[in-house]
Design a protein that fits this description.
Four copies of one chain form a homotetramer. By secondary structure, chain A is of the alpha/beta class. Chain A is built from four helices and ten strands, in the order βββαβαβαβαββββ. In chain A, a hairpin with a 4-residue loop joins β9 and β10.
């Protein structure tokens, strides 16, 4: 079973630019992570864009949609910023494509000591293999269908919408 | 959905004793990990034993069996050393209990910089929620049924036995 | 020999606020660091302020000056943001106080995986014990007197000014 | 000012062999550390040997002695296991060579999350630049002359012998 990870940036891949003193994007950390976690599953990585999800416009979301329409794989993970992950999940969910899509991300960048990035990636890699066709969001150790999930801005955790 | 994690030690929870200069067991790191990965799923932790899986005798395996027979939860993760994880999976698999059991562990202790422990935990937390009744082993980003898995001692990775 | 560390914030102590997605200040990491590095020297910690050194005004610098005038210790480390560390060093150097003062900081926050914070702290703790009376800046494994140092904005490293 | 680091192994450079489940030596981590701590001082690295200091025999200590006799630098750091660091310091101290020698190491391997290795390296890099001719041991944020230091086996810290 082959999996594609479509990378869009988000907190997951944020990097500290020590000259500017800012969190920015430089490259993805996915190859490094997949190596040290000893993942032996065949995984294709695709850098779709590297942006903060607060900056995500419709054009950015269309680029994600195009990527997974073209992808030969039926099981796809999308790394995404948490702030608008639900919006992207909804747009993808409404297209009704016959693939298994899992959106994930992290609240703390991978480059920090106590990040949730590696855990969420593990959750998603197993989730995308076991879930049926459809669009899902995996965060906080839980699986959410695209049409019943929201981010609680006070706690920073994802919850059922209803 | 409530999950129980039965902790048996293994490389996952190994700790460096700086006075003796040895890797030993002191306590489990699971509470700390579940906190920083922002897991909001209800999880019960149970320290069953803290041993190297090379030291696991039948009596040790019976103690694991008793634990999950008594557990009120139907979905159970067992953290276990990788060297004899397959043997324990087989013993549990042959008992035919009607629960979903996932065995996992790590090749590098959690306390090391580049450990696979947090990734494997993420994999197992989603796996145990989505898999049917039965005994499974989750390592290297893959799900293995208990009766078709072995550890490749040369690569340190798990593979289908056949 | 007793040492005081006057904490002023800077990149050294920056913390990731996962709800806002920003680097801010919450508390100092010095107690945690001094514990795991096994430092047995008697050290007094004083949180003077927790700010970005780009925000440092004369009033902020006067507060540092007051702190080390009142301090009973003759050997004092000041943690400080790198952007205006040289300015603060000059202001302190010109006062001509009869103590050994070392300013240090970091280019990458302590909370990141590959930070220079712990190294710079080690450098400064030994530097402040061995240097004579005067004001010094310790960064990049080097000791600089307050009146012959500048930050190279292109490389992010400190150099002799002349 | 140019510095040589003579590497002899010890806990500092211990590596986890995940196939054997043991702490062993593979290579030194010094180049990686010196890079991310942003050290700009000219430093020559020399791998003299990579052993546990409990295995250090007279022949091993003679090899260290030969190395620093041949070294063109006058300021030399030796990374060394803590168990017999004091013995090696005494042997070097009694030779009366006209150089500044600092022995250091760590109680917890660099590859562990909360290691004292990077701190001790920072301490030693400044110590070796500021100390006079002689043999010193730097651990726990303190400088000890070779003839007045011992390791307290209960606490794992170094102390004055008298």
């Amino acid at each position: 079973m082959s999996i594609r990870i479509i990378i869009t940036g988000g907190t997951f891949d944020k990097h500290y630019d020590e000259l500017q003193g800012e969190l920015t994007f430089k490259n993805t950390h996915l190859p490094e992570i997949l190596s040290f976690v000893r993942c032996t599953l065949p995984i294709k990585l695709e850098i779709n864009q590297l942006i903060d999800s607060l900056d995500m416009q419709l054009a950015n979301r269309m680029r994600i949609l195009q990527s997974f329409r073209k992808a030969p794989e039926d099981r796809i993970i999308i790394t995404h910023g948490t702030d608008t992950m639900v919006e992207t999940a909804q747009l993808l969910g409404e297209t009704g494509i016959e693939k298994t899509i899992v959106l994930t991300g992290s609240m703390v960048p991978y480059t920090f000591t106590n990040s949730d990035a590696v855990f969420n990636l593990g959750c998603s890699i197993i989730g995308v293999q076991l879930l049926p066709t459809g669009v899902f969001l995996i965060m906080n150790g839980k699986v959410f269908p695209w049409n019943n999930v929201c981010k609680n801005k006070k706690t920073g955790s994802f919850e059922e919408a209803t």
